[in-house]
UniProtKB/TrEMBL annotation:
One Pfam family, short name: DrrA1-3_C
GO molecular function, one term: ATP binding
SMART domains in the cross-refs: AAA (SM00382)
Topology of the protein relative to the lipid bilayer: Peripheral membrane protein
The organism's taxonomic lineage, starting at the top: Bacteria, Bacillati, Bacillota, Bacilli, Bacillales
Protein name, as recorded: ATP-binding cassette domain-containing protein
Domain ABC transporter: 2-233
This protein's record includes keyword Nucleotide-binding: yes
UniProt keyword Metal-binding, yes or no: no
Family statement: Belongs to the ABC transporter superfamily. Drug exporter-1 (DrugE1) (TC 3.A.1.105) family.
An individual GO BP term: daunorubicin transport
């Protein structure tokens, strides 16, 4: 339905997006993950025609839309990272304004406004000024605005950052219903892995402007099929411990955690006795040792060297 072909954006000598190919099939919910600065928002800006690519293409149903993006704008709804509302207007007035921008017919707009307000749980608050709303409520109005013209594709750029749990749950449920019950195609970026696992059928992982992996959850987890993830809780952690554990046979990666270290090692290798020896020689003790089933967070860390929130 929607695809990018070798999509690239260069600023002076830096490639913010470096030749990426992604696609969305009709009715899919697809996650786009990456640490800060990976190029996610730049990619979204090019797909939604807000930013012209340096090279590459954006295609809708197989046809290039770079030169004439009007059809993409018609079928696309975008919920940006930043709140895009008029604070001095009510939720109702904001939606009326955006409905006219989207050229929703006058005889349709009022009903459509009430439908989207109901969808985001703000129908009873529609006459209140946006400046009186919490951050989560403002984001819900943003989502309502993006839905006014009944888009076939909805792009949400980190819609739950810094909001209250109630609004977060409401947004997640709204996105799920849009996809499962209304058939809306979703492209969803987030700093919360559990959201993507809950909402998305497929995932792209992006780092330094490139797509470093893509596939279903099971396909991505298979990347670590030859490795074990081991959580080790320690009485104290030090740089010396981390460096010595990194030097152990079969150990492929070590990361410090809040209460110890996370080790990626060759699958099936028995490193416990050597690990105990190293830890005790550094005057620390192991209080808990657990081999975990790999998660998407582990795959992300393995591929990018960062946690999702870095």
């Amino acid at each position: 339905m929607l695809e990018t072909v070798n999509l690239t954006k260069t600023y002076k000598d830096k490639k913010a997006v470096d030749g990426i190919d992604i696609y969305l099939d009709k009715g899919e919910s697809v996650g786009l993950l990456g640490p800060n600065g990976a190029g996610k928002s730049t990619t979204i800006s090019m797909i939604s025609s807000l930013l012209k690519p340096t090279s590459g293409d954006v295609r809708l149903n197989g046809e290039s839309k770079i030169k004439d993006p009007s059809e993409i704008r018609r079928v696309l709804g975008v919920v940006p990272q930043e709140i895009a509302l008029y604070e001095e207007l009510s939720a109702y007035e904001n939606l009326k304004f955006f409905g006219k921008i989207y050229k929703v017919k006058k005889d349709v707009l009022e009903n459509r406004m009430q439908e989207v307000l109901e969808m985001v749980g703000l129908k009873e608050r529609q006459k209140e000024l946006v400046k009186t709303f919490s951050g989560g409520m403002k984001r819900r109005v943003n989502i309502a605005a993006a839905l006014l013209h009944q888009p076939e594709i909805l792009i949400l750029d980190e819609p739950t950052v810094g909001i209250d749990p109630q609004s977060r749950n409401h947004i997640l449920e709204t996105v799920r219903k849009l996809n499962e019950e209304h058939g809306t195609t979703i492209l969803y970026t987030s700093h919360y892995m559990e959201e993507v696992e809950q909402l998305c059928n497929r995932v792209y992982i992006m780092d330094h402007g490139k797509i470093v992996a893509s596939g279903s959850k099971n396909e991505l987890l298979s990347i670590l099929s030859s490795e074990d993830t081991i959580q080790v809780q320690l009485s104290k952690t030090s740089d010396a411990i981390i460096e010595k554990v990194k030097g152990m046979e079969h150990v492929r990666r070590v990361d410090e955690t809040s209460d110890g270290i996370r080790i990626i090692s060759k699958k099936g290798s028995n490193i416990l006795s050597d690990l105990v020896h190293v830890i005790e020689n550094e005057n620390s003790q192991i209080s808990h040792f657990q081999v975990e089933i790999p998660s998407l967070e582990d795959v992300f860390l393995h591929l990018t060297g960062k946690t999702l929130r870095d």
